[in-house]
Amino acid sequence: MGCRCLVLALNFFLAPVLLIIFAVRIYFLPCIGIYMGNLCCWICCKIWFCSDCVHQDKEFPPNEKSLGPYEADVGEVVWRRGSEFHDEKNESGHPFLFKDGIEPADIAQGALGDCWLLSAFACLAEHPGAIEAVFKNLEYTRTGKYKFRFWDAIAKKIVTIVIDDNIPCRKSTNRPCFSSPHGDELWVLLLEKAFAKFVGSYAGLEGGHIAWALEAMTGDKVYKYAVEADGMWNRLELKHDPTPDNKRKCSMWTTPGKFDKEHMYNLLKRLNDMGCVLGCGSKGKDETLTEGRDDKKAGIVPGHAYTIVHVYESFGFKLLKIRNPWGTFEWDGDWSDKSDMWSKHNGVKQSVSAFGGGNKDVDDGSFWMSWDDFVKYFDVIDVCVRSAGIYDLRLDSCESKGFCGPFLGCCSGCLYYWLLCQGPAKMCCTRDGRKDNISDIENPIKT
User: Fold this and answer.
1) How many structural domains is the chain composed of?
2) 33 in the same domain as 13
């Protein structure tokens, strides 16, 4: 009893001190670091030519080797620096790393068959601070040097991937060959390139597992659930099997646990409520790389990776909100944007309105569908039991605000941290996804 009281007393007195330390570390020091870094860059450019200050990645140069033998037909390729992607209306004269925050809508796939990777980006973008945590940079840098934190499951440690901002583009259009930028925002292009370097080439990104990408970005446990011929869902676990030709090769191994359709939906709801990252894959084979996309068609693209945004049950209807990383091609059946199910069941429409439900009829790649329809078209679900805590909070440098951006971001972040109690909440309500046992999560509804 005495030891417990001592622990409680220490927590009571140390908590305010820790909150101050975390606030300084998360907001104040990065803010000062941005201004000092920009000052050093300005001084260097005054002493030397600016072109001499631009980073060139010799390990992953802008050439055919870095591209690799990819399947997509993009024509002749030219490489453009990140500074060339700015909008002419942008008064700053340069693009942004993150503009007005990170949203899943920032992500759109190009010609490369890496929808699995971009879907992983979209999955993680649903969780504030998760994508930013992968970047060591807080804003656009004129040197074109960017650093990323990846979990190397083979080495069992966090590694730093350093790239320059040379981006492969179609010569005919000067647009990026692979992922498409959202306006003059660079983070998707750069994160895709960091993964390309991580696996050896852009071609190495054609085909892969959402679970692998989520593990690399978070270091947390990942799983896959696949439906079998008898309609039962089986859990699979990621196993790394590197070869001399492919150091990132992996496979999914089955486990004894099985769940029927009803239990699987309940498990999915629980994982969603826990804040886990969720993705899914449709049945069939994706032929769009070779045959192209038919913009007149709608519906579920075969063999394609999607994001599960929400799992929500309302008035007995088991619903899911899904997102296509293409930013288009939506489900057109029951509970889709144009479905009359919304008008027939106004109570459901009202209850899911906070999650973007209803007849919005916006072709943004996001849509709702029933669980019964989901199991007809999707046969895999990816799960990342993501860690959460104080480091979900991060300085927003407010790049679009110019010179005052980091200062404004520091002030707004501190208000969010202290006045809205996000600092105490994040410090007290932590979860280490690496310590969670998936069997314990499944146990209440395990068959």
Assistant:
1) 2
2) yes
Residues 6+ apart with CB under 8 A from 405: 139, 397, 398, 399
What are the catalytic residues?
Answer: 115, 304, 324
Residues 267 and 442: beta-carbon distance below 8 Å: yes
Encoded tokens for 33:
């670091």
Same domain (yes/no): 129, 226: no
What does the pLDDT profile of the chain (447 residues) look like in tens digits? 555 565 455 555 678 889 999 999 999 999 999 999 888 887 877 776 555 578 899 999 999 999 988 766 667 899 999 988 877 666 667 899 998 778 777 777 665 667 788 889 989 998 989 999 999 999 999 899 999 999 999 999 999 999 999 999 988 888 888 887 777 889 999 999 999 999 999 988 887 888 999 999 999 999 999 999 899 999 999 999 887 777 788 888 888 878 899 999 999 999 999 999 999 999 887 655 545 555 444 588 888 888 899 999 999 999 999 988 777 788 999 999 889 999 999 999 988 887 776 667 677 788 999 999 999 999 999 999 999 999 899 999 999 888 999 999 999 999 999 998 899 989 888 888 888 888 878 875 544
Whether residue 70 is contained in a domain is answered as: yes
Query: Looking at the domain assignment, is residue 154 inside a domain?
Result: yes
- In a domain, residue 231? The reply is yes
- Read off the CATH number of the domain in which 279 is found: 3.90.70.10
Q: Is residue 437 packed enough to be buried (19+ CB in 10 Å), middle (13-18) or exposed (0-12)?
A: exposed
Domain of 317 in residue numbering reads as 210-386
- Does some domain include residue 148? yes
CA distance 358 to 351: 10
Whether residues 414 and 362 share a domain: the answer is no
